[in-house]
Design goal:
Elements lengths: L7 H10 L2 H7 L1 E4 L14 H4 L3 H6 L2 E4 L5 H14 L7 E4 L12 H7 L2 H17 L4 E2 L23 H16 L10 E7 L18 H8 L1 H8 L4 E4 L3 E2 L2 E2 L4 H11 L5 E2 L5 H8 L5 H11 L4 E2 L3 H11 L5 H17 L12 H7 L3 H14 L1 E5 L10 E5 L24 H6 L5 E2 L7 E7 L18 H11 L5 E6 L15 E4 L7 H9 L63 E8 L2 E8 L5 E11 L10 E10 L4 E7 L7 E2 L5 E2 L4 E7 L8 E4 L2
Parallel strand pairs: 1-2, 1-10, 2-3, 3-4, 4-5, 5-6, 6-9, 12-13, 12-14, 14-15, 15-16
Antiparallel strand pairs: 7-8, 11-16, 17-18, 18-21, 19-20, 19-24, 22-23, 24-25
The protein binds beta-D-glucopyranose (2 copies).
One beta-D-glucopyranose (BGC) binds next to loops.
Length: 691
């Protein structure tokens, strides 16, 4: 594929031949609808954007936020390419967050699989469908470490652990981009939101954050570093600020940290209209200053605020911005286009028929099904699951006949044709669907609405609704086993609901194959194996609550006073991070020999199943305080009844390295306490030396 790319010299010659207007134009992203008759974006009519045909012709990229057919997309690319003075094709970008047309479970659910292969598959399938539909670049993976279930965007992240975000994020990058993004089935990947967006205060979207540099280095940056190391093509600064300087114009963050320290060489794109926010912050007086600040701080492309498009060329001509600064930014855009092979092949597919035959093909649907099976978390089971053959089953609740089980960031999927639980269970001849009064067992499918998840869906009340609780109460009084199938994009506070459930399967938003995957689990064709990717709080007042919070003074001791505790609530969550049951049981017997931790894992039950063996650690001594418990490694193990397997992990000092406020490494020394088990509540039982 190499020969379809320009050489470095050809790229530099192209740059040298471009006018200032052309170079500034390459740094602008405009809506694809600006180039399509009769299509408008939800942000407002085109007239308000004041885009002239000349500006459209110079734009370096278009963003699509709705379904577009391959032929229509190809036409836009060809038109802009023809109009651009050097025939430079535009980049087509889209949010392919958890699948494109075939939806996988939401990323928080992918985190719950603890299976990097699943994350990679999701990236691969989304890229395949996205590329054949005309997209070049996806705004994924999102690797914000998330600890606050009030924040609706937790659904987009692999979870609360920096390591889980790092490993799953890197796997998504690998799956999305492969080794060569010019391949017909690949997309370029973008790590977002850089950085600390997950710390938005009180879980409110776009709210300020206050993250120290120490927390940046130790908690929020590592997932981005993992994506950079995996070859991520693009990075998107977050809507938030570090040191009171918005990330989008934070020179220290973008230049010193991202490019210098982390070694990122790709393109930096703003979030949607984020440069413009500098005016609301009062950081810039007008859009001209916005463009000047952003380009000077290291931002390359401006998504949808048109600051560069309207002002950057003037700023360069007037000598306020150096032309070399413009050149450097423009080169990042040209390099990405070249890596995608766009100079030789601006359009990867222009056939709707080809798009239709690839999207939703059986192999992709199978991968989505397997991801859904592995992501559901069995939180409680008093024996009501799996259902018995011949059972009379009531399937009720707000989500029993719901097509919208895909989760937020579903732009291209056909929600209305997504199978509902009633359609799936209704086709299963092993059971009979009846009313709750006639039933042996009641399945209550309930939870959040799809549109309650994703951007701008923060909640002050992350609970089941009053009506949903009322329905649960009513069903519970019938005196039959009630199995809750809980749809959610975040951990809900389930403390009041739990005692009324005989079993509780957390199904997140499971995606296109979700209904069949849930049925397979409920019927026992498949065995639940997901493990919570975020802590489930017992009370909202405990938030933020996560397994790896920093150690406290006067640490918690049960029934003691003047210790770290609540006087009116348990110290502990309802379900810890990493928690998840199975239809079988496992015994984990761990031992340590030097830095090698071994675990004999036995399936002690009657059916085959998977568990996730997790290793947590905490250094006994270090100059900096550390997480009470930190996920260091895990392994998913699949065992037949009675089968035993020994697995091992090497626990090395780099896993426990920390960074101080100056970003200097604090190497792990001495002894490290180790806990091995099936969730993060397992106590420390071993010690390994760090040197
Ligand atoms: C979101 C990004 C997204 C972008 C483009 C923004 O509002 O914060 O995550 O990639 O829109 O849709
Ligand atoms: C409290 C201080 C107090 C000291 C002596 C500590 O536990 O935090 O505020 O002055 O005890 O009573």
């Amino acid at each position: 594929m190499k020969n379809i790319k320009l050489t470095r010299q050809e790229l530099l010659s192209l740059l040298a031949d471009m006018s200032i207007e052309e170079k500034a134009g390459q740094l602008a992203q405009i809506p694809i609808s600006a180039c399509m008759e009769g299509v408008t974006e939800p942000t407002g009519p085109m007239a308000e954007m004041n885009l002239t045909p000349a500006q459209i012709a110079l734009s370096g990229s278009v963003i699509a936020v709705r379904k577009i057919e391959a032929e229509a997309c190809a036409q836009v690319v060809r038109e802009i390419t023809a109009m651009q003075p050097h025939h430079i094709p535009p980049l087509v970008m889209k949010d392919v967050i958890h699948g494109h047309q075939t939806m996988f479970p939401i990323p928080l659910a992918i985190g719950a699989t603890f299976d990097e292969g699943v994350a990679e598959d999701m990236g691969r399938c989304g890229a395949l469908e996205g590329a054949v539909s005309g997209t070049h670049v996806t705004f994924a993976p999102m690797v914000d470490v998330v600890r606050d279930p009030r924040w609706g965007r937790v659904m987009e992240s692999p979870g609360e652990s920096p390591l889980l975000c790092a490993k799953m994020g890197a796997a998504m990058v690998r799956g999305t981009r492969g080794n060569d993004i010019s391949a017909p089935d690949r997309l370029a990947a973008c790590a977002k939101h850089f950085v600390g967006y997950g710390a938005s205060q009180a879980g409110q979207d776009y709210a300020p954050i206050d993250v120290s540099r120490t927390e940046l280095y130790n908690t929020y940056l590592p997932p981005f570093q993992a994506c950079v190391d995996a070859g991520v093509d693009m990075v998107m600064p977050a809507f938030v600020s570090i040191d009171r300087i918005p990330c989008v114009c934070n020179e220290w963050l973008l230049k010193d940290v991202l490019r210098g320290r982390m070694g990122f060489k790709g393109m930096i794109i703003s979030d949607w209209d984020d440069p413009h926010q500098l005016m609301y912050h009062g950081v810039a007086a007008d859009m001209r200053e916005v463009s000047k600040l952003c380009i000077g701080s290291g931002l390359d492309m401006d998504m949808m605020s048109f600051a560069h498009l309207n002002h950057l060329a003037d700023l360069v001509r007037e000598g306020i911005v150096d032309e070399s600064t413009l050149d450097a930014a423009c080169l990042h855009v040209l390099e990405l286009k070249n890596e995608l092979g766009l100079f030789h092949q601006p359009v990867k597919n222009d056939s709707n028929a080809c798009q239709e035959s690839v999207c939703g093909n059986p192999e992709i649907r199978k991968a989505a099904f397997e991801a859904a099976v592995k992501s559901c978390v069995l939180l409680k089971n008093d024996g009501a699951l799996p259902l018995k053959k011949g059972a009379k089953v009531a399937l009720v609740g707000s989500h029993a006949n719901e097509h919208a089980i895909l989760g937020g960031w579903t732009l291209d999927a056909d929600t209305e044709s997504t199978r509902t639980l009633l359609e799936s269970f209704g086709a299963d001849e092993r059971i009979t669907l009846v009313s709750p009064e006639e039933a042996d067992v009641i399945l209550l499918a309930t939870g959040e609405k799809q549109q309650d998840t994703g951007e701008d869906t923060s909640k002050a009340h992350p609970y089941l609704t009053a009506a949903q609780m009322e329905e649960l109460r009513r069903l519970h009084t019938l005196g039959k086993p009630v199995v809750m199938l809980l749809f959610c994009g975040r951990p809900l506070v389930l403390t009041d609901a739990l005692p009324m459930c005989d079993a509780l399967l957390n199904v997140w938003f499971p995606g296109s194959e979700g209904a069949d995957a849930i049925r397979a689990l409920v019927m026992g064709d498949e065995n639940p194996s997901g493990h919570a990717s975020m802590t489930f709080p017992r009370a909202l007042g405990q938030v933020p609550i996560h397994h790896d919070r920093l150690s406290a003074a006067r640490p918690h001791v049960e029934n003691a006073i003047y210790v770290n505790r609540y006087i009116d609530e348990s110290h502990y969550p309802l379900f810890p991070f990493g928690y998840g049951l199975s239809y079988t049981t496992f015994a984990v017997d761990a031992s340590a020999d030097g830095q090698t931790v071994s675990a004999k894992v036995t399936n002690t039950g009657a059916v085959r199943g998977d568990t996730v063996v997790q290793v947590y650690g905490r250094l006994q001594h270090s100059r900096l305080i550390r997480p009470e418990k930190q996920l260091l490694a895990w392994q998913r193990v699949s065992l037949a009844p009675g089968e035993c397997r020994e697995i091992s992990f090497r626990i090395t000092p780099d896993m426990l390295r920390m960074y101080d406020a100056q970003g200097a490494a604090v190497e792990a020394e001495g002894l490290c306490d180790i806990a091995v088990g099936e969730d993060s509540a397992v106590p420390f039982s071993l010690t390994v030396p760090m040197n």
